[in-house]
Amino acid sequence: HSKSAGRNAVRFFDPAMQAAVVARATLQRDLRHALRDGELRLFGQPVVDARAQVVGQEALLRWQHPLRGMVSPADFIPVAEQSGLILPMGQWVLRQACAQLAAWARAGGERAQWSLAVNLSPRQLRQPDFVDTVQAAWREAGADPRRLKLELTESLLLHDIEDTITKMEALAAQGIQFALDDFGTGYSSLAYLKRLPLAQLKIDRSFVRDLLEDPNDAAIARTILQLAKSLEMEVVAEGVETAAQFEALREMGCHLFQGYHFGRPAAL
Ligand code: C2E
Ligand code: MG
Ligand code: MG
Ligand code: MG
Asked: Which segment of the chain is annotated as a signal peptide (predicted)?
């Protein structure tokens, strides 16, 4: 039966696959409603310096689902990316983040100096009007663009690299800084890395986790720090969960730190 149905025919004989397709469609629909009904939340996780002083936050998206509770981005970002919903959703995150920066500036005190990092989907960057969209977001909110950081992953290097560089440079000229997220897990070519206007590399938490037990992970962390130094970039270690990891990374010369040891993501 499956052969005669042809290669492209939808086959309903696999209940597990059918269930997955239905689940995905349901998630997509619910996600569209989430955006419309205001179920998205922006959480923040502190970023600290070598003295463990908070210097900023990373904005992390959450979905306050009426039945499922707080849904993690790992469970819905991939679906949002496939359906294109990541574009209006990313727009919401940018506006929300800029409003937060403006509120910190108004409140004064040390928060007025904090930066806020926003995660971007490669699909956002590929929009022809991306530079204008970002500029409109900080302008309309009255936020200082020098406090806004944009986090990209190495997967963006798979697409039109010249276009990416042009857009990044236009935004960098506005004072916005870029960080390369989850560094070490992707496809980075060192030749490209040097051409991107990056202010920061973020060591992926998979290298931080076993840093003290696994000499290979320690070597990777050291190598990233050396690379960043010669490219004049800062390094942020993510996933720092213990004082011992903090101490080891600090001794290696790491500049900035993020992880449960300093604070979990919480409502901004
Ligand atoms: P990411 O940008 O690498 O964010 C760090 C993730 O590590 C966060 O997960 C954070 O909660 C988690 N984390 C932080 N410290 C620790 C730690 O000490 N130990 C452990 N085990 N985990 C830690 P989260 O919030 O679930 O976000 C997952 C990913 O979803 C993010 O990874 C980012 O790639 C994506 N994401 C989050 N918000 C957005 C957004 O607004 N837009 C886009 N496009 N992607 C987003
Ligand atoms: Mg990030
Ligand atoms: Mg990260
Ligand atoms: Mg990561």
From this structure: none
Please give the DSSP secondary-structure letter assigned to residue 234.
E
Q: How many CA atoms lie within 13 A of 54 on its CB side?
A: 19
The answer for residues whose C-beta is within 8 angstroms of residue 246's C-beta and 6 or more apart is 52, 240, 257, 261
Among 168, 113, 151, which residue's Cα sits nearest to residue 238? 151
Q: Tokens 């806020």 label which residue?
A: 116
Q: DSSP for 50-73?
A: TT--EEEEEEEEEEEETTTEEEPH
Query: What is the pairing mode between strands 40-48 and 54-65?
Result: antiparallel
Return the ligand 1 atom nearest residue 93 CA.
Answer: 41
How far, in Å, is the centroid of ligand 2 from the Cα of 185? Answer: 13
Verdict on whether the full-model pTM lies above 0.80:
yes
Ligand 1 touching residue 237 (CB < 6 A): no
pLDDT band at 155 (very low <50, low <70, confident <90, very high): confident
Q: How far apart, in Å, are the Cα atoms of 264 and each of 43, 57, 59, 76?
A: 10, 11, 12, 20
Pairwise CA distance, residues 115 & 49, whole Å: 12
Ligand 4: distance of its center to the CA of 45 in Å?
13
> Is this complex's ipTM strictly greater than 0.95?
yes
